Amino acid sequence: MSHLAILCVRNEAAFLLEWLAHHSAVGFDHFLIFSNDCQDGTDVMLDRLQELGHVTHIRNDGPFDKGGIQFTALKAAAKHELVKKAEWILPLDVDEFVNIHCGDHTLSALHTAIPDATAITLTWRLFGAASQVRYADTPVLETFTRAAPAVLYWPWRASMFKTLYRNDGVYKKPGVHRPRDSNEKKLAKARWYDGNGTVLPEQFATKRIFSNFGQDNYGLVQLNHYPLGAMESYVLKADRGRAVHSDDLLGLDYWVERNFNTEEDLTIQSLAGPRNAALKALKSDPALAQMHEDSVSWRSSRFSQLLQKEPFRALFGRLMMTPPSHPVTRQAAQFMIKHANLGRKVHKSAP
């Protein structure tokens, strides 16, 4: 095994097969997937996928560490035999899709383009809701094709990355955005590169979780991020809760900072052929196909239940009243960044 993806899921069965098909086409050899408290059959689907040899499934039912659901899973992953054996590791979420722009658009092509890299930052490119109100059982990658501009000045969260890193002993544990627990004796071996193939400063080897914003970070690779889906799906996401900040309720703030539909980006369709073939193969299994259909039905039923409750009905109404987000100007972003830095200085100087 050369490339391992680690995933945490809850109530994502309607999207799981497309995600697996795409990342198989990208070049991942295996998937270590943790599930928790699933109501839509995601856990049962993962059991079947494990039977077929596509994934390794672990139920992450708690109790959870103080860091939350995802941190608990990644802590367990660090001890797993698959993680110890993997040559390269990338923790992902089910709404994130690796999009490689060089060569044949696979991981092998990316390594050929940056042969010295031991860690590559895959910066998010945010894809908005594309004015989709109701959820439909259509491929995410074909439905949501409008994204934030390649150069975005604000918010800084839009420039967060996930890290594809060589499992060479420099880092002992996988993390949500970057590998953790570095071995100080081996840290000098780390060679961090960004999505353009540019060498990154030393601080990235130990602490950064977002790329420099206000620049295009996507020359060789980007991470297509679909955090919203249709408005209906966002209501279900609010019901599901967050894997990292589980106590934070999803509202309009999260939506507005991610609903960019400024530019069309179809580059991920470069792998449409092998992805569709892989998806067809997965759905050729009658059990998986039925589980997918059942999860689609569950989403419809659950949304109907939620809309009978005032908080979720109010959220859905607000989503429909809120226009797509517009990027702020460079000048406006610099104004906010200036005050953010002033605030940091005040915080550091406080007794």
Short description:
It contains 12 helices and 13 strands. It is α/β, with parallel strands linked by helices.
Structure description:
Pfam families: Glyco_tranf_2_4. It is a single-pass membrane protein. It is found in: Membrane. It comes from Sulfitobacter guttiformis. 37% of the residues lie in helices and 17% in strands. Strands 1, 2, 3, 4, 5, 6, 8, 11 and 12 form a nine-stranded mixed sheet that branches. Helix 1 (13-26) packs across helix 9. The protein is globular and about 50 Å long. The chain starts with a strand and ends with a helix. With 351 residues, it is of the alpha/beta class. It has twelve helices and 13 strands. The mean pLDDT is 95. It has one domain.
What is the N-to-C succession of helices and strands? EHEHEHHEEHEHEEEEEEHHEHHHH
Shape: globular
Mean pLDDT: 95
Helix content: 25-40%
Biggest beta sheet summary: 9 strands, mixed
Number of helices: 12
Secondary structure topology:
Blueprint: E1 3-9, H1 13-26, E2 30-35, H2 42-51, E3 56-59, H3 69-78, H4 81-85, E4 88-92, E5 96-100, H5 107-113, E6 119-126, H6 140-143, E7 146-147, E8 161-166, E9 171-173, E10 180-182, E11 192-193, E12 221-225, H7 231-240, H8 252-256, E13 263-264, H9 272-283, H10 286-306, H11 310-321, H12 330-349
Helix pairs in contact: 1-9, 1-10, 2-10, 7-10, 7-11
